[in-house]
Amino acid sequence: MSGTTTAAVAPRRRTAGAGANRWVVLVVLCVSLLLVALDATVLHVAVPAVTEDLRPGAIELLWIVDVYPLVCASLLILFGTLGDRIGRRRVLLLGYGLFGVASGAAALAQDAQVLIAARALLGVGGAMIMPATLSILRHVFPDRRERALAIGIWSAVAAVGAAVGPLLGGFLLERFWWGSVFLINIPLMLVSLPVGRLLLPESRGDRDGPWDVVGALMAAFGLFGMVLGVKRLGGAEPPLSPWTLVPLLAGAALLIAFVRRQRRRAHPLVDLRMFARPAFSTSVGCIVLAMLALVGLELIAAQYLQLVLGFSPLETGLRLLPLTIAAMAAGLLGSNMLHRFGPRRMVVFGFCLTAGSVLTLTAMGGQDNAGLLLFGFVLLGFGLETTLFGAYESMLSEAPSAQAGGAAAIGETSYQLGAGIGIALLGSVMNAAYAPRLTSVPGVPVSDSRAAGHSLGEAYEVAGRLGGERGATLRHVARDSFVHGLHVTLLVSAGLLLLGAVMALRLPRAMNCEPPAAGPAGVPAPREVADSRVSA
Question: Transmembrane region positions (predicted)?
Fold first, then answer.
C-alpha cells in the first residue's frame, strides 16, 4: 500500500494538507478513532451482565470479547489496500455504515453465537475505518515536529475512547440492559457519516498491481489459528492435544506462507522490506507488547473490581478513569518528551514505568485499597501511553513517505494484534492459574467444583445454588483463586514489559526531523543506513 496520496477528484479547497485544513482533517480522523476505540473497551464492564444473561461457556466468553480486535487486525491490510484503489474516504464511510448495522445486531443478540457474529462484523467495520487515520495523518503532516503533535492529539483521543468506554458502559448498565453499550455507536456513526463526507478529502494510492485477496485471507486464518491454540493451552488443554496442536501449527504455517508470498509478489499487500529498518521493526514490536499488556490487564481489572471488590459497573468505570486520564496527559506531553529525550529513552522509560506499576498492583488482594489502585493505575496509564506514542511516531517517521499507507496498516495491525493476543494470552494465563484450585473444594461435589473453575462469575452462581456453608466455602475459595490468578497474570505482564524495554534499546537515540531518504521500493539508501547506525 502506498502512502503517496492524490486528490484528483477533490476540489482545491479539500486538498489534504493544504494550510490549516490539515488540522480539520485531524479532528475528523480523531472522531473516527474515537468510534473504534470506544467499542474496543465499552464491553469490558458489561462482561458479568452478558455472562448472567446469555450464559456463554468459558471459550465463548473469550470470543465475545476478543473476536472484534482479532477480525479487525486480520482485515486491516485487506481494506487498507482496497482504500488505495477505490478511495480511502469511500471505504471509511462504508465502514461507518457497517459499524452501525453490526452495533444494532449486537445489541439485540439473544444468544452467545449471535453476539460473537455481530462482534465479528464490528471488527470488519473497524478494519475499514482504521487504516485511513494514520496514513492520512502521515501525509498531511510532513513536518516531523508538527506530526508528533498531531500523533499526540490522536493518541490522547484513543485514551479518551478507552476511558469513556468503561465509564459510559457502566452508566448505561446502571439504567438499561447490556445491549445498550452497543447502541451508543449508532449516534456516533450518524454524525460521522455526513461530517466525514463533507470534510475529508478523497485520496487514493498510486499502485496499479493486483489486489492479493488470497494473501490477506492467509494472514487472517493464520492469526486465528495461532490465537485459538493459545486459548486452548490456557484452558488446561494438554499441549499435545489435536485441538491445541493443530491450530497452532496450521496458523504458523499460514503466516510463514503469507510472508513468503509477499516476498515473491511484484505487488505485495505489504512491502516487508520496511522491516529491514531496525527502528521500524522495533517500533512495531513495541506496539504489540504494549497493547498486549494494556487490553488484557484492563479486562481482568474490570472483572476484579466487580466480582472481587463488588463494585457496580459505573463504580468500576470511575475506578479505571485515572488510568486513562494519565494516558491522555502522556499523549499531550509526548511531543515535548520525544523532542527532549529522543525515541530510545522515551520508549524504554515508558516500558519500565509500566512494569513498575504492574508489580505495584500485585499488592491487590480481596479487600479494596483505593490509594494503591489509584497510584498503580496512574503509573500504568502514563507509562503505556508514553510507550505507544514513542513507538508510533518512530514507526511513521522511519517509513518512507511513499510507503506511509503500508506503514499505517502495519501499525494498526500491530495495535489490534497486540490487543487481541493480550486478551487471549493473559486471559489464558488467568484461567490456568485460577482453575486448578477449584478442581476439588472440600464439601462441594466434584461436578460443581469443576463448573466453578470455568470463571469466577460461574463460581458465584454455583455457590448461590448450593447455599449454606458449602456455598460460602466455594465462594471464598473462588475469590482467593481469582486473586492468585490476577497476581500470576500481573507477573507475566511485567516480564513482557521488561522484554519490551530491552527491545526498545534498538530505537534511535535522537529525534531526526529530516525525512528519511529512500531507495527503490522504499528501501533505505546506503548513506541513510550508515547515518542511522551512527545516530543509534
Answer: 23-46, 58-79, 91-110, 116-137, 149-171, 177-199, 211-228, 240-259, 280-305, 317-334, 346-366, 372-392, 413-434, 482-505
What Cα–Cα distance (Å) separates residue 221 from each residue in 218, 256, 340, 406?
5, 12, 43, 20
CA 394 – CA 338 distance, rounded (Å): 10
Q: What is the pLDDT of residues 108-148, one digit of tens each?
A: 888 888 888 998 898 888 888 877 777 777 777 777 777 88
DSSP labels, 215-242: HHHHHHHHHHHHHHHHHHHHTT--TTSH
Task: Report pTM.
Answer: 0.73
153 residue type, one letter: I
Listing DSSP states for 295-356 in one string gives HHHHHHHHHIIIIIS---HHHHHHHHHHHHHHHHHHHHHHHHHHHHHHHHHHHHHHHHHHHH
Q: Is 6 helix (H, G, I), strand (E, B) or coil?
A: strand
Question: Quick check: 296 and 426 in contact, CB under 8 A?
Answer: yes
Summarize the confidence of residues 360-378 as an average pLDDT.
87
> 3-class SS at 204?
strand
Contact predicate 493/356, CB 8 Å = no
CA 354, 358, 359, 363 dihedral sign is positive
Q: What gap in Å lies between CA 254 and CA 256, rounded to an integer?
A: 5
How do residues 299-315 score in pLDDT, each as one tens digit?
A: 677 778 888 888 877 78
Angle at which helix 88-107 crosses helix 185-199, to 10 degrees, equals 170
